[in-house]
UniProtKB/TrEMBL annotation:
One of its GO terms (molecular function) is flavin adenine dinucleotide binding. The lineage of its organism: Bacteria, Bacillati, Actinomycetota, Actinomycetes, Cryptosporangiales. It comes from Cryptosporangium aurantiacum. This is Glutaryl-CoA dehydrogenase. Residues 236-383 form the Acyl-CoA dehydrogenase/oxidase C-terminal domain. Its cofactor is FAD.
Length: 391
């Protein structure tokens, strides 16, 4: 028998998921509905999020570093992690950012490149949400070109001394540990920096109109002295931080579709109930065109995310393919949110509905972890063999 049409899954993507994958998706969705949904509009409006409390909630659920193995991490698949990111971002991009920075940037860097001592010291408490981490790469004058970073680490006897600034750092002012990338005489190196180290400070960035339910900070390193074993021993050069960013970008491929789904569902429900000229606006052709276009792009983006997730689980996923996913899915998610806003009319700018919040957040997601321009040129280089963003 042909199953009935499901407006929440119009092309039947659930048929491609295992029961375990569906169960993880449902567990994250349920937790978000319980601990995030009742408060998220207020958190966004006030520019405050209880990051440490939420970290413990999601540590208890097992989603912090869930795609890593050992050290208290859940060891789940890339697809399962992606589905978790989708549900987290359906709640709010700031929430997915908290989890993504914790697991795919800070924890992944230590797990992939750290010493055994560094892993034992930090990963179990980070997986449990008892310790928060941040990832210091972007600088005030160096975003898309991290090779130009000015943060410097120099040897002084048996110690390292770090000086510099990092900018737009998620979790920065609430973190217990920062993974900081700096220039050294031997190239770019990563350092595990306890945030209570003398000379380290993380003033919070305020006056944001996007990602308001997220802690964003500057990192200031003023003669921060660290022992010799603070350096990540497993990598030298930019391949270290760039491989971490690729992990985070993969989560965004899924997460953006969560924000888009939330906006689409809100618009669909609104269109069925809002009456004008004696009938629901869902009965008008132009509204149906908007809903159909949104549904098609949402389904295509979810299929792309799932395909890339299966490739990642098969260890066949290339960085250029992650760029395709990040470029397409965030761009289309933002367009879905903007179209949903038009269906809601004036109500679309109210925090009583999630649409304008998702749209504002996605303006940041469009830029971070690689701008549209950079992912376009990454794909352009892969297609043509010419690196247009280098001299």
């Amino acid at each position: 028998m042909t199953p009935p049409f499901d407006p929440s899954d119009p092309i039947g993507i659930d048929d491609l998921l295992t029961e375990d994958e569906k169960a993880i998706r449902e567990a994250v969705r349920t937790r978000c509905e319980a601990v995030v949904a009742p408060h998220i509009a207020d958190w966004f409006e006030t520019g405050h999020i209880p990051a440490r409390e939420l970290a413990k909630e999601f540590g208890d659920l097992g989603v912090l570093g869930m795609h890593l193995t050992g050290y208290g991490c859940a060891g789940m698949s890339a697809v399962e992690y992606g589905l978790a990111c989708l549900e987290l971002e359906a709640a709010d991009s700031g929430l997915r950012s908290l989890v993504s920075v914790q697991g795919s940037l800070a924890m992944y860097a230590i797990w992939k490149f750290g010493s055994e001592e560094q892993k034992e010291r930090w990963l179990p408490s980070m997986a449990a949400g008892e310790s928060l981490g941040c990832f210091g790469l972007t600088e005030p004058d160096h975003g898309s070109d991290p090779a130009g970073m000015r943060t410097r680490a120099r040897k002084d006897g048996g110690d390292w001394v770090l000086d510099g600034r990092k900018m737009w750092i998620t979790n920065g002012s609430v973190a217990d540990v920062a993974v900081v990338w700096a220039q050294t005489d031997d190239g770019v190196r990563g350092f595990v920096v306890p945030t209570d180290a003398p000379g380290f400070s993380a003033p919070e960035i305020t006056h944001k109109l996007s990602l308001r339910a997220s802690v964003t900070s500057e990192l200031v390193l003023d003669g921060v002295r660290l022992p010799e074993d603070a350096v990540l021993p497993g990598v030298r050069g930019l391949k270290g931080p760039l491989s971490c960013l690729n992990e985070a970008r993969y989560g965004i491929v899924w997460g953006a579709m969560g924000a888009a789904r939330s906006a689409f569902e809100s618009a669909l429900a609104y269109a069925k109930n809002r009456e004008q000229f004696g009938k629901p606006i869902a009965a008008f052709q132009l509204t149906q065109q908007k809903l159909a276009d949104m549904a098609v792009e949402l389904a295509k983006g979810q299929l792309l995310a799932l395909h890339l997730g299966r490739r990642k689980d098969a260890e066949r996923l290339r960085p250029e393919q992650v760029s395709v996913g990040k470029l397409n899915n965030v761009r289309e998610a933002l367009e879905i949110c903007r179209t949903a806003r038009t269906i809601l009319g004036a109500n679309g700018i109210s925090l009583e509905y999630p649409v304008i919040r998702h749209a504002a957040n996605l303006e940041s997601v469009l830029t971070y972890e690689g701008t549209v321009e950079m992912h376009t040129l990454v794909l352009g280089q892969a297609l043509t063999g010419h690196a247009a963003f280098r001299g």
